[in-house]
Write a structure and sequence with these properties.
The protein is of the alpha/beta class and about 425 residues long. The chain is about 50% helix and about 15% strand. It contains 20 helices and 12 strands.
Length: about 425
């Protein structure tokens, strides 16, 4: 009888505990302090905002006390707004960061970026592309978590080349000759689309020519090395190609280059792989008729390649929650959605095989151009202005924020100044930052 009563008592206590827990759980959730995160996404393409808004809404399903304000801006605006926000003490919690700017922002007074080592390890350090992860290492911490890389290529119309009897291009000499042959403005056909406007697209277009021919802005010791035969020749090549661009190319930036190539006027374009995606969307019947390469007169396969990821400001009052959201963006569905939003403008740096497979199955241009995609995935060698041969450093971001390359090149193209004068001006401004 005693055992029976003991059992009944135990059962009643258990039921009471379960009921009480069920009653208190919603109250505990309600009692959670509301958290508002501000996230700066430093790329102005609309599909990114759509993706992140959906990601924030999905995150809120399991974190009902967290709201995330997505603030979108162009890269050029970010170069100005990062230091301004740091100076005013009004930094966001999370920012989409370019690795070349990370150390610069981190070393601004009040701009410290929090260590992301714990998130890198939680996601499994070995799943990241090793060199790309190392590029974020500075002052014994990861300044950000790499997400995608953005390599520039020369895209060319196989059908237009074949119709003109031109062979597959390999060198910049081939490209210059093809641009001249294929430039027929009276028919609305142009040799090539490249940027001429004084913003980041001009800088990055030009860097493809520079790096692929063995040129650099900085030495391995961090000294300016632009004003030499290779640097001046890169200016000459870009200037020659610019003769065969569509009208108004002095005002052409990233969007204009991709749009004109998709519309079918230019036979070639220097851009991110999103140029291929947009061309396919506009011309699905021409599947397979675009090739991609890194031309070189020096037999090098080196291009301009950015490395982008997520950083968190150390001043954020909600670092723990911010890190949870960043980690959430690497889950399978979110990583696949993030890659899809790039429209081939970003290639994966995190080896979530399931997410990558989902992404590849969703994007039509990948299926239509398997040879190009293999080329894009095979080559992972590239540099970026301010980082270059030197590596992560606190002055790297100044090169982009001051617009040294793009400003001088735009003036050169507009005023038709000499290559020697332009190279000297770029070298001088680099020396003002890094020393002689």
């Amino acid at each position: 009888m005693v055992c029976y009563q003991t059992l009944i008592g135990f059962f009643r206590r258990a039921v009471f505990t379960v009921v009480l827990g069920a009653m208190l759980s919603p109250l505990a959730a309600m009692a959670q302090q509301p958290v508002k995160l501000t996230l700066w996404f430093t790329d102005s393409r609309a599909q990114y905002k759509t993706w992140l808004d959906k990601a924030a809404a999905e995150y809120r399903k399991t974190h009902p006390n967290v709201t995330i304000d997505i603030v979108q801006m162009s890269p050029s605006d970010a170069y100005v707004k990062w230091p301004a926000a740091v100076a005013s003490g009004n930094t966001p919690d999370i920012t989409w960061m370019f690795y070349a700017f990370a150390a610069w922002v981190n070393d601004l007074p009040g701009g410290t970026l929090t260590s992301m080592d714990d998130i890198v390890n939680a996601l499994d350090k070995n799943k990241f592309h090793a060199a790309s992860l190392d590029a974020w290492r500075y002052k014994d911490k990861y300044l950000g978590v790499p997400y995608t890389r953005q390599p520039y290529y020369l895209f060319w119309r196989k059908d237009r080349f074949a119709a003109a009897g031109l062979k597959e291009p390999k060198t910049w000499d081939d490209i210059m000759n093809a641009a001249k042959v294929l430039h027929k403005p009276e028919k609305g056909e142009y040799g090539i689309a490249i940027a001429g406007k004084g913003d980041w697209a001009l800088r990055q277009n030009f860097e493809v020519v520079l790096y692929s021919n063995g040129g650099h802005l900085l030495s391995k010791e961090g000294k300016p090395v632009f004003d030499n035969e290779v640097g001046r020749k890169a200016i000459d090549i870009y200037t020659e190609l610019f003769k065969y661009t569509p009208p108004g190319s002095l005002n052409a930036a990233y969007a204009e280059v991709n749009r004109s190539f998709a519309q079918g006027g230019p036979a070639m374009a220097i851009s991110l792989p999103v140029a291929l995606s947009q061309f396919h969307d506009a011309n699905p019947s021409k599947a397979g008729q675009v090739g991609a390469l890194i031309p070189s007169n020096a037999n090098l396969q080196i291009t301009m390649q950015n490395n982008k990821g997520w950083s968190i400001f150390d001043k954020s009052p909600n670092k723990a929650e911010a890190k949870k959201f960043v980690q959430f963006l690497y889950t399978t569905e979110q990583y696949a959605a993030g890659l899809e939003a790039t429209a081939l403008g970003g290639l994966p740096l995190y080896d979530n095989k399931e997410a990558i497979d989902v992404y590849f199955n969703r994007v039509g241009s990948i299926k239509a151009y398997p040879d190009v995609v293999n080329t894009l995935l095979a080559n992972q060698t590239g540099y970026y202005a301010g980082i270059d041969w030197y590596g992560q450093n606190p002055k790297g971001g100044i090169v982009g924020s001051k617009g040294i390359l793009e400003r001088n090149l735009n003036i050169h193209l507009a005023r038709k100044t000499g290559s020697a004068e332009t190279a000297k001006n770029i070298q001088r401004e680099l020396a003002e930052i890094f020393g002689d």
